[in-house]
Every structure is written in structure tokens, then in C-alpha cells.
Amino acid sequence: MLCAPRDAAPERSHDVRTAFVSTYPPRRCGIASFTLDLAAASGTREIVALHACGQASPYPIEVHHRIRHDERADYTSVARSLRDCVDVVSIQHEYGIWGGDDGAYVLDFVRALSIPAIATLHTVLQHPTPSQRAILTELVERVDMTVVMSRSAASLLETAYGVDARRVEVIPHGVPELPLVDPEHVKAGLGVDGRDVVLSFGLLGPGKGYELVLDALPAIATARPNVTYVVVGATHPDLLRSEGEAYRNTLVQRVARLGIEDHVRFVDRYVGRQELMRWLEAADVFVTPYPNLDQIVSGTLSYAMGAGRTVVSTPYAYAAELLAEGRGILVEPGSPAGLASAIVEVLTDDVLRRETGRRAYDHTRAMVWSAVGARYRRLFGAVGNAPRASVRAPSLATVNA
User: 245 and 126, same structural domain?
Assistant: First the structure.
């Protein structure tokens, strides 16, 4: 689909037309959901959808272009066409969503752009391969500004990749604006009234650490017999295509082997936003047991904090930063006993649970999508209206105001 020609120069600094280049619903992935929310929060936009092989074709009306994952020519042709219809391009980057080895086709796209661009990085690897390092380094050099969602990610870009700190903005992951509610008011509607609810959510796949929680559950259930661990989310579509439900079946078998069938509930489907928010509100404890300690962002963790839930987590980089100062509880990675002890403590101590959740909730008021969208709008305005030679000037720090 062709985009509409862009208008004359915008009258106000924030009225720039933005194209978001990313995965996008109906594709089911965290970055697609992030882009949907960011585009809605930041105003007028059009979407360039990174289209996976085998993905359903229908898109919402705001999707004006598709880039087919393995069609290298699409990256260049779409990039060139954007010069006639938008003022700035917002690129969402994670290696796996772009075509080519390690997502190398993102470089074809940025090399062909003739308008300003901003890259939001969803992954910054502490130990990249030479190929991954080269791709990320060139991407950051070619765009006009780079956004990361944590200070640890910004520091890593500066120290490990040599990126000028003046060309990096820290804008947090957005969260829905939810009221702070008592879980007991929500549980009955989800069939978990009278239960201690421990929750994880997200597309199911290896590397999330669910096994650690299952291994900790017998000890938790001994101390809290009414505990239920709820895992909300469909199997990741890419995993489903390659091996079906084999991974989920390993978790089910683990539950049976541990004898904890009465304490685990899999909501094995893709739930809508409203139902997901209800599960968050029903949770007494939220767990992110990720084994990858280099992980620099977690939308699920952000959402749980935004709902005022008490989070127990392994100390991956993003969790260590966001849960500091009593906003959550960090446990030793790979230790079922340590995880069990922390969860039991939170479930047993009402004051600890309430105060920790409240601190998380208060901290995330600056992370609600309306606030995050406003910060991106200011950045889009600064980059989209600045002469290309001045975009990288230190004065861009004012977009944080």
C-alpha cells in the first residue's frame, strides 16, 4: 500500500509524521505489542510491518507498507519510498525480527533512508558475536538518535560499543495506566478465589526460566497449601511452527513428575489486553525467573510493576535496575530454594507485599504510555525538524525535560 504524500513542513516541533518500522499485530510478539502501544501513544503515524513468512496477511488500516522478511529488495525499496510521506522513521530493533543473518537486512534499510531515523533497541548484547556487534554498531552510527529502555543498556552501549552518550536517550518501556487494586477483588472472576496467585505471562518458550518456578513450587506449596502458579500465554508462534507444543509438554510432564498438578494452571492461549490486565491485578506475586542475566528489557516485568504487583525475580540487568530501592525482590539465579523462600516470605508478609507493590506502582507512574508517548513525540519533533548536521548536538538532551 502506498502512503499519503507528506504535507509541507510542520508548524509545530512535535507535529512530525512518523513511520514505525517493526513487527505489528496481528503478529504475536512482544515488539509488535510494544509498537502498537507506542504508535497509539505518540499520535499520528503509519506502520511499516516486518512481515514473517507464513504470517496471516490482514493488517489494520494504518499499515501502509510490508517488508517481507526474506525479500532483501523490499528493505531498500520501502526505505526509499518513505521519503515522500513521513518526516522521521522509528525503527524497532531486535536481531530476530529483521531478515538476513543476525538481522543484517536492517542495514540495507537504513542505508537507503534519506530522512531522519531513530532506533529503539530491544536487545543490547553484552557478549555479541562479531557479526552482531558490527550490525548494531553500524545501525547506531547511521541513525540520528538511539533509544534504550534502561540506564544499564545506555551504559553498555557507551562502554562496550563505544557509542557517544549524547546520541542515546533512555525512555522507559511503557505500561498501561491501571488502578492499584486488591487482588482479592479480582480473583473470583478468574476462578482463583481463595488462592495465593503467583503469576508469569508471555509467549511460551525455552529461556524464560519457568522450570525454576516449577522446581520451587513443592516447597512453596508446603508452606502455602493454597498456592497456584499461573502461566498465561500461548506458545511462541515461531516455536509452534517448528516443533508444535513439544516445549509446553515438557513443562506439563515436569508438573506431573513433581506432583504439583493441583498448584499449576496453564492458560495456554493468546489472551487479549483486558484479560491480561485482570490476571495482573489478581496476582499476589509476579515472577520473572529469567536465566539470561544480560537481558536489558522485559515488558512483562514493566507491566507487573505498573499494576502494583510485588515482583520476585532473578537479577538480570533490567530487573536489577527497576527493582532497586525496595521495588521488588531479587533472588539467586538457578536456585529453586532461594526462589521458594522469597515467594513464601512475600505471600506470608502482607505488609511487605503491600509496600513493595506500592513502591513499584509509584515508580512506574512515569512509565505509563501517555508519558512515554509524550517523550517520544518530543524526540521525534527534535529529530524530524532539525537540520541533519545538528541532530547529534548535545542540545538534544532537552527532549528529556
Answer: no
Owning domain of residue 200: 183-366
pLDDT at 33: 94
Q: Assess contact for 369 and 175: CB atoms under 8 A.
A: yes
- Do residues 377 and 356 share a domain? no
The answer on 251 and 209 residing in a single domain is: yes
The label of the residue with cell 536465566 reads 291
Q: Is residue 52 part of a domain?
A: yes
Question: What mean pLDDT do residues 68-86 have?
Answer: 95
The owner of cell 521488588 is: 328
Higher-scoring residue by pLDDT: 57, 1 = 57
**Which pTM does this prediction carry?**
0.89
Amino acid at 141: E
C-beta atoms surrounding 73 within 10 Å: 11
pLDDT of the residue at 28: 86
Q: Helix, strand, coil: what percent of the chain each, to 5?
A: 50, 15, 35
Determine the Cα angle at 294 with ends 318 and 142, to 5°: 90
What pLDDT does 236 receive? 85
8 A C-beta contact, residue 337 and residue 144: no
Residue 56 domain-assigned?
yes
Say whether pLDDT at 395 is over 60.
no
The conformation of residue 38, written as its DSSP 8-state character, comes to: H
Element (H, E) at 379: helix 369-385
Q: Considering its fold, how many domains does the chain have in total?
A: 2
List the one residue out of 277, 271, 87 whose CA is nearest residue 177: 277
